[in-house]
What we know:
- The protein has 219 residues and is an all-alpha fold.
- The chain has one domain.
- It is built from nine helices and two strands.
- A hairpin with a 2-residue loop joins β1 and β2 (28-29).
- α4 packs antiparallel against α5 and α5 packs antiparallel against α7 (135-149).
Amino acid sequence: MYISALFSFFGRAICHQLPERTFLINNSYLPLCARDTGILIGLFSTLLYLCLFKKYKANQIPTIKNSFILLLLTVPIALDGLTSYMNLRESSNLLRLTTGIPFGVMLPFFLIPMLNFNNQSLKERRILYKKREAFIPFTLAFCLGSLTYFHLMSYILISSLLILTLVFWGTLLTFLLLKPIKSFQMKCSSAVMLCFFILVLLSQLNEMLRSFYLPYLQG
């Protein structure tokens, strides 16, 4: 009960958590809606891939051609979200999940090089040389997405994966904002604290404003 409330608290920082758009697993709603679940599964898969294949030190984004292909992955989620919010069509949780995954897979391929760009101690290393390298995180992400959709992962396991990925991703983003700080240790500790502060603040604001914006969420 308490762990479920904790998951929900942090998930509320970035998500509306509408029950009809959220997967119900083991009689508990996931802390994030289907679309955000897909995005974070994609983020987790690419971050894991970059760590396992030691590409986290890359300081160059993919080639122009590969970058263009990766950026095309934003089109499905944009079309699904835009057309549903405009009431042109009704989306589904499966579609929200499957359009969120490619978007999440794409993001680390651009953020990680940004984090390492000014690191003079690193040689120039491109994060993605060939398009087929991206199939590894894609395959992992869609496997995790399938396990989630068909309720083959426990609520605790998938929720832990989502929230830990959210915290880790938020820390990376705040780390980027704190890049001017020279001390690596201070920068890391400050990024973690700032990330938690922002998540707690957003969660509280979301709770306060929920009664006002819920009627307008129709997509």
